[in-house]
Amino acid sequence: MFAITGITGQVGGAVAHALLAAKQPLRAVVRNPSKGAAWADRGCEVALANIDDGAALTAAFEGTEGVFVVLPSNFDPAPGFPEVRAIVAALRIALEAARPVKVVCLSTIGAQGTRPNLLTQLTIMEQVLGEVSMPIVFLRPAWFMENAAWDVAPARENGVIPSFLQPLDKPVPMVATVDIGRVAGELLAQTWTGRRIVELEGPSRVTPDDIGAAFSRILGRKVRMDAVPRETWSTLFTSQGMANPNPRIQMLDGFNEGWIEFEDGEAGSVKGDVGLEAVLKDLIAKQSGSQS
Question: What angle do CA 248, 199, 120 make, to 5 degrees?
Fold first, then answer.
């Protein structure tokens, strides 16, 4: 039995689908019963727990061979990241009390870094959960190709996609969530001791201009990328409702300046199978379906 947190999200769902395809029994860890109904219909056990509730998480993790941990996304954390500190403290208590055989945690490219940015939340997670007494692996994926979901509408509507990744010809490590799910499922099936790091990206690195070109081919119209001026980011993000835009800006700087990178570089990362164009076709098809 494997317990999956974040199962209603992109990555947690991809991990669950990979394990179900391998005929593995699953326990879906969700916040309320309505969130778990679809997974119960697929034959999963359902456990109710908030991600910051150590007691409920302990019950959800008990009797499992492995646990997949994914933190809820927080793009506007308070200074000092108090939200993630509370969550990982609860997770550590639950893991030590429930004692699953092994743990796989979704981390991020650049989690080993020391410069503060939005991804520091995962650095904190690795530091705290890296001290648990059972075997644990931190899976560090690259930038999600599915972030391009935000690009579908502008690509269709006016053929111009605003890009915070820049220069537009700079290759960026990216990965498809289906590859993350597959690799996480494979890791849960393995046996190891101690603490491991696995870094994951797609079959090749992707420039913002590559994204525009791929949209052009798929949509049959000219699509180009437009670099959003760096000096406008803080005002723009604040106008969109962010209270503390600096961590997000620092993360974008890290990708653009190259200091957010895998610990062992491109040569040391595991390579996924799914390329950009397949992901974009899927995103376009899903948004077309939701509008019909």
Answer: 30
Closest CA to 61 of 105, 21, 22, 23: 105
Per-residue pLDDT tens for 225-244? 999 999 999 999 999 999 99
Decide: helix, strand or coil at residue 55: helix
- List, in sequence order, every residue forming a beta bridge with 196; answer none if it has no partner: 137
Residue whose tokens read 């690259």: 142
Q: Where are the domains of the chain?
A: 2-291
Provide the terminal-to-terminal Cα distance of the chain, rounded to the nearest Å.
39
* Closest listed residue to residue 91, CA positions, set 63, 111, 71: 71
Mean pLDDT of 22-30: 95
Give per-residue pLDDT as tens, 64-93.
999 999 999 999 999 999 999 999 999 999
Pairing of strands 143-144, 102-106: unpaired
Architecture (CATH level 2) of domain 2-291: 3-Layer(aba) Sandwich (3.40)
